[in-house]
Design brief:
34% of the residues lie in helices and 34% in strands. With 101 residues, the protein is an alpha+beta fold.
């Protein structure tokens, strides 16, 4: 009977350790960077997707698996916002026009 309790406590301890490690490793790294600091292929993807708009600041996100994406918003002359997200190789992931409301 005591052996089963010990095994139970050991398994509980291991489960808690796994949750702690998974939680600490699960966070993505997000940082704000200047448009000029993006790779050229990413800059071209933004420019091709929203010709004429200026992106002063870009959010760079590094996923826990190493994938990197870049996203930015810019205002259009009509007051609407454009949000664009691209991968590190310049592939368009998201293009969205938000209403002014």
């Amino acid at each position: 009977m005591h052996t089963h309790r010990k095994i139970g406590w050991v398994l509980l301890g291991l489960a808690m350790a796994i949750v702690l490690v998974a939680t600490s490793c699960a966070s993505d790294k997000k940082e704000k960077i200047a448009f000029a600091d993006c790779p050229i292929v990413v800059q071209k993807a933004f420019d091709n997707s929203a010709s004429g708009l200026q992106f002063s600041e870009v959010k760079k996100e590094t996923k826990k698996d190493g994938r990197v994406t870049y996203s930015a918003k810019a205002g259009k002359p009509d007051g609407k916002k454009v949000e664009i997200k691209v991968s590190a190789d310049g592939a368009l992931i998201k293009f969205e026009i938000e209403d002014k409301d």
